Amino acid sequence: MKKIVFLLTLSLFALSPAASGQKFYPDDPLLKEPAPRLFKQPANRKLSDYYDLFSHQFGPPGEVAVKLKKTIPAQAVNTLGEPMEGAWWEQRHYYKRMSREELQRGPGGNNAPSTDGQWTVIGAKNEGVTPGFVILDAKKRRYFIKFDPLTNPNMATACDAIVTRIVHALGYHVPENYLVYFSPEQLELGEDVELLDKRGKPQKMTRRDLLEILLKVPKTSDGKYRATASYSLPGKTIGPPRYYGTRADDPNDIVPHEHRRDLRGFHVISAWLGHDDSRAINNVDVFVKQQGELGYIKHFLLDFGSALGSGTQKPNSPRSGAYFFDWGPAMEQMFTLGLKPQYWALAKYPKLPEVGRFEWKTFDPEKWLPEYPNPAFLNRLPDDEFWGAKLVTAFTDEDLKALVETGQYADPKSTAWVLECLIERRNKIGRAYFNKVLPLDQFRMEGGKLTWVDLGAKLGYTKAAEVDMAWSDFAPGIRRAKLTSKANPKQVIDVFVRNSEVIGIERYW
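Request: output the structure for the sequence above.
Response:
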């Protein structure tokens, strides 16, 4: 009975205001989720990459609006339409501008592997194009070491460094990733470390095995190895969160993931970064202990090696930004005998091995797609897109320059190209999504007057919005200002005010 009462109470906070009878409560707007209910560690959940692909490709799971032929408003938002800080997301750069140093530092920033002593290899893999290690540094801290492919030095590691910091600044939980350089002499082999042989059977790893792994990755000009060192997450990993449904073993996870604004809006962010590998298998849930054996689940995004033109093990596919398979384009190609090329086929890429395939001239945020259908992305509405776009466009050119520098490209042309692409793709996102709604935000009451920021006009993506404003009484002590676009009367924002405080925002289009 207590659990039922808890879930009903939490629902009032976590669901959109329209989900309950009363529109506003005395403590609205909530900026943070209620303190999570603590529970014992759940079992680890595994997810087959192939099952995930086929189950999404041929009929996306979850409550998907296009299948139901209806729109489903975003949930897990407060009365201002904002996601609440908690296990999924936090307010960062758009809401509280980060300094150049903070942007470059990213999450943590103080836990780079120690170079004062040896690194002990406690696990390794040598299969695939890019092998990797698990190490303990001299302070006994655990790291996952990932490399670039031989064909494209610096590509995956630069991408991971840049994108991890961008996604952190956008508010998501990500691991602490550090660019490191080391020599083979810095590595020592731990006791009883096993490695799979060519037949897939475990065998005791030798020093020769270690050196053979290093033969598969590129060296720097001074004979060292460059890698991403990902600091172990703060808790026990228990498998990936899906982009639909909820975890049955998590009492705090009550909003279907396909309806979360922070996941719907991630489509805009993924398009900007060319993060087409944005799927469940590249995220992870972590059980964080708080009181003895009790804790809660925190959700992390990770594995950003497939973005900014990188495909992790090789340059990204020329068809990046399109599904692996899509009936519509497939039929079109068949009936036109292949004479009408897809938009992505017109893209041209500079020869920059450190970058792979990344461009902006043919990029269209409205056409961009991940590798296969994502239920949260499919459910996005113009207000979800506006939320994602306002986070993306909050990065100035100087902000992006500071972030791209963290990739430490060897060729200045690579740095310049990635920066140019991020700037121009950002601008296309602003023009696309700020025109779909009335792009006003940051509402305040100042001197008895309602003020706001016209994001579209401020950033140069739209003309200054001309609006009609009408005040009315909404409820005892609460007034409503209705702002209607003169250019498009369907674009409306209702702003609710109580005691000179903006407590609610609703957008229509």
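The two ends are 42 Å apart (CA to CA).
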